[in-house]
Amino acid sequence: MCRWLAYSGTPLLLDTILYKPAHSLIDQSLHSKLGVETTNGDGFGVGWYAANGTPAVLRDVGPAWNNRNLREIADHVQSPLFFAHIRASTGTAVQQTNCHPFRHGRWLWMHNGSIADFHLMRRELFLLVDPQLFNGIEGTTDSEMMFYLALTFGLEQDPPGAVARMAGTVERIGHEKGVEFPLQMTVAVTDGVRVWAFRYSSKGESRSLFYSSRVDTLRTLHPDVEFLQEVSDETRLIVSEPLGDLPGAWNEVPESSYGVVQPGADEMFTFSPQAA
User: Fold this and answer.
1) Active site residues
2) Tell me, what CATH number does 83's domain have?
3) How many domains does the chain have?
4) Is the pTM of this model over 0.85?
5) For every residue of the chain, which 3-state class applies, written as one string?
6) pLDDT by residue for the chain (276 residues), tens digit each?
């Protein structure tokens, strides 16, 4: 399906995370180890926050591994918070408006997974989107639909509750259409300050998702790793699959859970769909 990462912490050049790790997202675009597909070449996107607090987005339909524009900005753009996504289409068109991350105001959203038999539910889900938000939908993916349903259900006020109501709505309509397991998702969403990451599937067999260990713990384990000396204790990564094999660096997000990366202590909670 797809691979993605979310970074929050000490401002870094995008290159530091996108290209330099042994199993970077660029490497995963060709050699994914934990994804459904080994190759994720149906487009890519990067979203990052500038000094004014608003996100910029670069998206393209080509594969990430040979995109000169991505390579160029990665060497020059520095940010304390960014999303990156490589796409493997689940059936919708390979076009720029279908590439992640999706943006609405200060919010960014990206997704790995699918709404099963999306074509059966598409009309009903569209009709539930707030009319004031509807014209913001540019593409044809289930991922963007999930974002706009979450916005409709109060994402800007209550991200976990809105995502739970979105998931509950997808499952309800899916079951009405005879779809046994309607939803598969790992989702990241941010307002530019906090990052929420969700791992859930109707079948209870969700796509892989990991978060990095505390930097102060890793410094103790690996005092010779230069990167760990350069970043703050609050630096954190959330990834579809680990960027390397540094012992103790990666922890699996539990099934049916979500976490919040935020100033101060990060938190983990259980996740379950709710009625909208």
Assistant:
1) 2
2) 3.60.20.10
3) 1
4) yes
5) CEEEEEEEEEEEEHHHHHCCCCCCHHHHHHHCCCCCCCCCCCCEEEEEECCCCCEEEEEECCCHHHCHHHHHHHCCCEEEEEEEEEECCCCCCCCHHHCCCEEECCEEEEEEEEECCHHHHHHHHHHHCCHHHHCCCCCCCHHHHHHHHHHHCCCCCCHHHHHHHHHHHHHHHHHHCCCCCCEEEEEEEECCCCEEEEEEECCCCCCCCEEECCHHHHHHHCCCCHHHHHCCCCCEEEECCCCCCCCCCEEECCCCEEEEECCCCCEEEECCCCCC
6) 699 999 999 999 999 999 999 999 999 999 999 988 899 899 999 999 987 888 999 999 999 999 999 999 999 999 999 999 999 998 899 999 999 999 999 999 999 999 999 999 999 999 999 999 999 999 999 999 999 999 999 999 999 999 999 999 999 999 999 999 999 999 999 999 999 999 999 999 999 999 999 999 999 999 999 999 999 999 999 999 999 999 999 999 999 999 999 999 999 999 999 998
